Amino acid sequence: MSGDHPAPLVGIVMGSRSDWETMLHAAEKLQALGIPHEARVVSAHRTPDVLFDYAETAASRGLRVIIAGAGGAAHLPGMLAAKTAVPILGVPVQSKALSGLDSLLSIVQMPAGIPVATFAIGHAGAANAALFAAAMLATTDAAIAEKLVAFRKKQTDDVMATADPRTA
Ligand SMILES: Nc1c(C(=O)O)ncn1[C@@H]1O[C@H](COP(=O)(O)O)[C@@H](O)[C@H]1O
């Protein structure tokens, strides 16, 4: 975001444009909660210099958390974590060849010392990474905390309103 938009607190990055179909679920949640964010394609493999620059400038640009999605040999989240102390939330994108198990294992098995918080494969993981980012920000931001509580309440109300599976 730029211009009149507030500085982003959350960075959403992904290894390829093809990951957007998954990562938009993170963006949608942040949008719904009114959390300023940005979205970028950054690849450890295809644009390594851009990755280094993104990681090295993240904290000074005001990013408080980065959600990183990648598929297959998903090195992006781990390499970001190696280059910044901003918390990295990793989202394994569902790959065609191995259904995302490759992505999951590439992200989750970090060596001790360089943590990446790893979420579920695919859309649910992207959405939950955004909600987790919101929960992190909510520890120091009362307005975000309020929005998160309201989101959870609405979710509960929506489930309860349709709790009888026999109704249409
Ligand atoms: N895993 C990575 C990285 C990385 O980890 O840096 N860069 C691209 N990719 C992944 O390659 C897959 C296929 O990409 P294409 O669809 O562009 O061929 C994507 O899921 C992407 O995240």
Automatic annotation (TrEMBL):
<keyword id="KW-0658">Purine biosynthesis</keyword>
<comment type="pathway">
    <text>Purine metabolism; IMP biosynthesis via de novo pathway; 5-amino-1-(5-phospho-D-ribosyl)imidazole-4-carboxylate from 5-amino-1-(5-phospho-D-ribosyl)imidazole (N5-CAIR route): step 2/2.</text>
</comment>
<keyword id="KW-0413">Isomerase</keyword>
<dbReference type="GO" id="GO:0034023">
    <property type="term" value="F:5-(carboxyamino)imidazole ribonucleotide mutase activity"/>
</dbReference>
<comment type="similarity">
    <text>Belongs to the AIR carboxylase family. Class I subfamily.</text>
</comment>
<comment type="function">
    <text>Catalyzes the conversion of N5-carboxyaminoimidazole ribonucleotide (N5-CAIR) to 4-carboxy-5-aminoimidazole ribonucleotide (CAIR).</text>
</comment>
<dbReference type="InterPro" id="IPR000031">
    <property type="entry name" value="PurE_dom"/>
</dbReference>
<feature type="binding site">
    <location>
        <position position="46"/>
    </location>
    <ligand>
        <name>substrate</name>
    </ligand>
</feature>
<dbReference type="Pfam" id="PF00731">
    <property type="entry name" value="AIRC"/>
</dbReference>
<dbReference type="InterPro" id="IPR024694">
    <property type="entry name" value="PurE_prokaryotes"/>
</dbReference>
<feature type="binding site">
    <location>
        <position position="19"/>
    </location>
    <ligand>
        <name>substrate</name>
    </ligand>
</feature>
<feature type="domain" description="PurE">
    <location>
        <begin position="8"/>
        <end position="159"/>
    </location>
</feature>
<dbReference type="InterPro" id="IPR033747">
    <property type="entry name" value="PurE_ClassI"/>
</dbReference>
<dbReference type="GO" id="GO:0006189">
    <property type="term" value="P:'de novo' IMP biosynthetic process"/>
</dbReference>
<protein>
    <recommendedName>
        <fullName>N5-carboxyaminoimidazole ribonucleotide mutase</fullName>
        <ecNumber>5.4.99.18</ecNumber>
    </recommendedName>
</protein>
<feature type="binding site">
    <location>
        <position position="16"/>
    </location>
    <ligand>
        <name>substrate</name>
    </ligand>
</feature>
